[in-house]
Automatic annotation (TrEMBL):
It comes from the Bacteria. Residues 6-76 form the Transcription regulator AsnC/Lrp ligand binding domain. InterPro entries: Dimeric_a/b-barrel, Tscrpt_reg_AsnC/Lrp_C. SUPFAM superfamilies: Dimeric alpha+beta barrel (SSF54909). Gene3D superfamilies: 3.30.70.920. The lineage of its organism: Bacteria, Bacillati, Actinomycetota, Actinomycetes, Pseudonocardiales. This is Transcription regulator AsnC/Lrp ligand binding domain-containing protein. Pfam families: AsnC_trans_reg. Coiled coil: none annotated. It comes from Amycolatopsis japonica.
Amino acid sequence: MITAIVLIQVEADAIPEAAQAIADIEGVREVYSCAGDVDLVASVRVTAHEDLADLIPAKIGKVPGVLSTVTHIAFRSYSKADKESAFDIGVEGA
């Protein structure tokens, strides 16, 4: 699976509707509204790089109110949950 983080600029008066429309697109896992340089941040998971080409410009980019997108492809995931679960390998439930 390929994970990408998509930074999205949206017209100010369209943020809630655009966020929900983007969240409803297949392949989009989560959408966050945020303060800062971008209006929305979306987490996307697809099976192939070609799927990103279909998803981002053809679907996310076409949502009414979306002005622009910048995509960052993730190489590796690091999280506290991943680290803690590694210690559970081979341990039977308590």
